Structure formats: C-alpha cells, structure tokens
Amino acid sequence: VVAKILLFDIDGTLLLSGRAGYRALTRAFEELFGVKQGFDGVPVAGMTDELILTDALRRAGVVADRVDRERFHRRYCDLFGEEIHFPGPRKGLMPGVLTLLDRLSRVDEVKCGLVTGNFAHPARIKLEHFDLWRFFHFGAYGDDAPVRDELVSIAVARAERKGVTVQGAHHVVVIGDTPLDVQCALAAGARSVAVATGTYDEVALRGTKADAVVSDFGETDTVVELLLDI
C-alpha cells in the first residue's frame, strides 16, 4: 500500500486528559523517590516523558539508575490507568477530532499513526478511554527515544513493517500543537501542520517553520483537504 503518513501528537492536539498524566507522575514520584509535587515547574509541552522524568529528578536532586526508572515507569503506567477515569480541567477531545479521524480512516491512501512524547502504555490507555485507539495503526512513543526528533523515523519504519510503502519523507506529515512537533518534522524532512489547541496560539505557531497552521480541526473539509494536499 502506497500511502501518505499522518503522524498525530496526542496531548493538546487530539485531546486533553484533564491532567491525569500529571497526577499519575506526581503520585509515582512521591511513592518511589519520596518527593512531593516533583513535577511542579517542569516543562512538559512537546517533551517526551523520559525527558520530563530526567528533569524532575535533576531538580529534586534524586539520583536514579535504570532499575529505578523502570520501576517508576511501571508504577506511573498503573497509576495513569486509575487517574484517567477521574474528571479534570478541559478533559476531552479537541474540536473536530473524532469527525476528522473518521473521515481520514475512509481515505485509502492515508494511514494515521502517532508521534508522541507519552510512554506507549499510557498513550494507548488515553486513546482507548476516548475511543480513538482504533484509528491508529502504528506510532513512536516517549519510551522509544528520549528526544522527540528521533520519533518520526521510528514511526515510519513501523509503518513500513506493516506493509505501508512510504515514498519519501515529503509524504509524511506531523500534526501537533507545539514548536517541538514542528521541529521533529523538520529533523526528519517531513511536512508539518501545527494546531493552536494546546499551549501555543496561532501567532506563536506561525513563528515556527510549520508548513501550515490551523486554529483547530473544526472545519473538517478544509483540514482534510489541507492534509491531503500538503
């Protein structure tokens, strides 16, 4: 199958989990390292979970080896499965997301995947909670590489292993809500569409090298046309 690959970020792009991730991270950090509110002030927008953890450990003065990190990873995943069920601020899908993904799923030459800083297990829990997991066939996650710039090539390789033929990076589009999403597309030679539903507004996103910027996914026809033509 020859396809255009659309790689979606999750948080701030497709949905908001109502800070379920923050609560689970905070609980796991206190349980394992004895530090309360360990993620306060830690930048998270566009970052991988691995880098977020590294920053929190550094700020708290905690030395953690690989085994400690693996224990944290497991505990965080367990706690996230609990926290996703609780209400939180702005929890829900971004405007037009469900309609957009449904439309794209009916276009034969398009395959949708993920490029997210989330660890893989919480990413799946999150998307299943909002009934979006069914739209995605492959992806790359925060536990695949600590730096987001490496994730696009990993996601494309996984698409190819599933029988998808990708005719060059210009047939890959990264869709995200932060300058780091745009940057990871540039690093891979891919296209990018920035959406102003997260931390950054349209003005800030137009200051990046995104190929296009949209306010949200509410105008389905316009967004589908953009993604197919870019």
Automatic annotation (TrEMBL):
Lineage: unclassified sequences, metagenomes, ecological metagenomes
Signal peptide (from-to): none
One GO process term, biological-process aspect: DNA repair
Protein name: Haloacid dehalogenase-like hydrolase
Gene Ontology MF, one: phosphoglycolate phosphatase activity
Gene Ontology CC: cytosol
InterPro entries assigned to the protein according to its UniProt record, in alphabetical order: HAD-like_hydrolase_sf, HAD-like_sf, HAD_2, HAD_sf, PGP-like_dom2
Database matches in PANTHER family: PHOSPHOGLYCOLATE PHOSPHATASE
